[in-house]
Amino acid sequence: CVETTHLPAVIVPGLAADDLFGTQSFYALLKSRYGIDIESGDGTISVSTVTAQEASLLGLKKESPALIFRAVAQDTNNRPVEYLTSVNHPQRVIFKTV
Question: What is the pTM of this model?
C-alpha cells in the first residue's frame, strides 16, 4: 500500500520523516515522544484509480483501480490527530472490520 498521513504540526513538534523508519510503530512513537494515545478512528473504503506515482509503487498500470482507505484517528480527548489515506493494490489487501 501507499500511505499518506497528515498530523497537526502543533501537536508533533520536531517530527521528521526519518523518525518513521525506526523499530517502533508510528502510534508507539506518538505515545512515547508526544504523550498521544490513539483511542478511536473513523474510516471509509472506496474504489478509485491510481496516479502514475502510485501505480509505479504498487506495480499497477496507470489509472488502474485501487481500494482507498481514508481515516481520521482521535486521541483519548476525542481530538483529531491523524488524517490517513491508504491506496491499496486490489489483489493484495484484506480489510477487517470490528
Answer: 0.85
pLDDT tens digit sequence for 25-61: 999 999 999 999 999 999 999 999 999 999 999 999 9
Give the integer Cα–Cα distance in Å for 16 and 47. Answer: 31
Contact 93, 1 (CB under 8 A): yes
- 75 CB neighbour count, 10 Å cutoff: 19
Annotate 13-26 with DSSP letters as a single string.
Answer: TT--GGGGGSSS-H
Structural domains present in the chain:
2-88 (3.40.1410.10)
CA gap 8, 62 in Å, rounded? 31
- Identify the helix (H) or strand (E) that includes residue 82: strand 80-88
Q: Using an 8 Å Cβ cutoff, are 16 and 53 in contact? A: no
